[in-house]
Amino acid sequence: MSFSDAPARARHLLVVDDDDRIRDLLKEYLTRAGFRVTAAAGGAPARRLLTTLDFDLAVFDVMMPGEDGFSLTRWLREQRGTPGRTPVLMLTARSESSDRIEGLKLGADDYLGKPFEPEELLLRIEAILRRAADARPQAEGPLSLGRCAFDAERGELSCAGEPVRLTEAEVTLLRQLARTPHEAVDRLELARGSVDPSGRAVDVQVTRLRRKIEDDPKAPRYLQTVRGVGYRLAPD
Questions:
Q1: Predicted local confidence at residue 21, as pLDDT
Q2: N-terminal to C-terminal alpha carbon distance within the chain
């Protein structure tokens, strides 16, 4: 199975496992498969990450000291907004069907027993991501940004009915933000594949776009900064 055709925005996974060896192996394998992977050694750091960054999917080990995968899943499903909708794949060495049922009742999307074949893990992750994408409401037509409108399909911005010239980089940035309106997108994720992966070029593009979109670029209403994370597009 080939993952060479990974999307331009590499999907961001969170791996939570208290076993350093397994956590590192999972991170290495999933990174090679084309994902962007962040890892946590337990429930407390996982909670901080889940409330700070947006993830396309989380992989939780069930058997962890302190907060186990069941408790972490229960907490996650109680969160409002994007964090609470994060798909979850649970991993466990316990084979009892009651554990699998418990995980699914708590809101896990799938359950995989250890040991497992790496390819099966990838297939299950891809299946969950496909279901999540199919369930996500798709914006229709241009996004309204006050007096401006952005057509992501055409890559066109207009303000007060007049076309506004955008650079190729500005079109790419707006399209990335328009995929998940009202949701924060990691600054480094926006910089992925750009000439400056540090994110400085993204900051420059945001400043230029605000001059084109916002009534007051110093107090942006539509192209917002999310402190410690990145940027968010907030259409009407």
A1: 93
A2: 41
